[in-house]
Structures are given as structure tokens and as C-alpha cells.
Write a structure and sequence with these properties.
There is one protein chain. This protein is of the alpha/beta class. The chain is 43% helix and 19% strand. The chain has one domain: Rossmann fold (3-Layer(aba) Sandwich), CATH 3.40.50. The protein is built from six helices and five strands; from the N terminus they run E-H-E-H-E-H-E-H-E-H-H. Strands 3-2-1-4-5 form a five-stranded parallel beta sheet, sandwiched between helices. The longest helix is centred in the middle third of the chain and has 17 residues. It is globular. It binds coenzyme A.
Length: 161
Amino acid sequence: MVKAVYPGSFDPVTNGHIDIIKRAARICDTLTVSVLNNKSKSPLFSVDERVNMLKDVCSELENVHIDSFSGLLADYVRENDINMVVRGLRAITDFEYELQMAQTNRKLVPFADTVFLTTSLEYAYLSSTTVREVASYGGDISQFVPDSIAKLIYDKLRQEH
Ligand code: COA
């Protein structure tokens, strides 16, 4: 049985992430999308808000579950009997960092492999930072995130000002 995790910050989830989630869900039995409570980033959305956004956009994917974690990914993998880590590769610039993470995790949890999916070309330029920045200037983010998420982003940015 392939039990996979797709970890990330998802601040906010974008169409690029959703593309990876849908494709990863087809190649594993269960996929947990897990939001990292990352102390080194100052997120726009709380972990609970990010979890709820993911639950909303993944509601129709039967084998996809949403969770959150803090600390080491390797510990989370071990504690949850996960045997596959999914990551998206957008461009060659992602590669070095991803390779380093995959190799470190393989040392820490040898029973789990990291599988890379190449992000679909139409999303290869996308990042959560770009989405937040375009939205903060009132730009149109409808091509980058689902409508329900766009609304939450604009609402949150309005609250911040
Ligand atoms: N489409 C669109 N954007 C994508 C994307 C895709 N397919 N894949 C990645 N991105 C973007 C994200 O939006 C994010 O953008 P941002 O930096 O503007 O916010 C950026 O790429 C980083 O991606 P993300 O997937 O959120 O990774 P991360 O670097 O924040 O976190 C973890 C990666 C969670 C896997 C890693 O930090 C981790 O495991 N941390 C736990 C601690 C640990 O175990 N450390 C040791 C690791 S060896």
C-alpha cells in the first residue's frame, strides 16, 4: 500500500499545488497533504486557515486527507507509517534544494522515498509569494487560485490594513 504525504507551507494553496495533489492522488492509495507549521516563515494564514482552505479545495478527492505538522518531516513520516513523500518540481532552481531534502530524509527514514512530479507548465512560474503580492496590490489572481481561495486572500489582506 502506498501511503504518501505532500508537505508544504500552502500559504495559500495555489492551482500549482492542486495540480500536484490531483496527480499524486492517482499514483498512491492515500495522500495526506500536510501543512508545515514553519517557524522560519511569517505566514499570511494560520495553520488552521491553511488546513481549512485545503479541505475546501480537496473535498472531492476521496483518497486525500488534510493534516498539519511541526518539527521534522522525517518524524512525521515515521509516526504516520508513510512510505512516499511527494514534492513538485517547477524549474531547475527547485532541484538542488529538493535533492538535498530528499537525500537527508532518505537517510533519516530509509523506508520512505521522495517522488518528484514536474509541475504542469502553466503553473511552473507560480508561487504562494507571487499570489500574495499580486493580491496585495489589488491585482487579478483568478488564474492562480480557485475563486473561494481568492476571496479569502483579499479578505485577509483587507483585515491586515
Ligand atoms: N505550484 C506552485 N507553487 C509551488 C509548487 C507548485 N507545484 N511547489 C512549490 N511551490 C511554491 C510554494 O508556493 C512556496 O512558495 P513561497 O516560498 O512563495 O511560499 C515555495 O514553492 C516553497 O514550497 P513549499 O512546498 O511550501 O515548501 P517549503 O519550502 O515551504 O517547505 C517542506 C518544504 C515542508 C517539505 C520542508 O521545509 C520540510 O520538510 N520542513 C520540515 C522540517 C524538516 O524536516 N527539515 C529538514 C528537511 S531535510
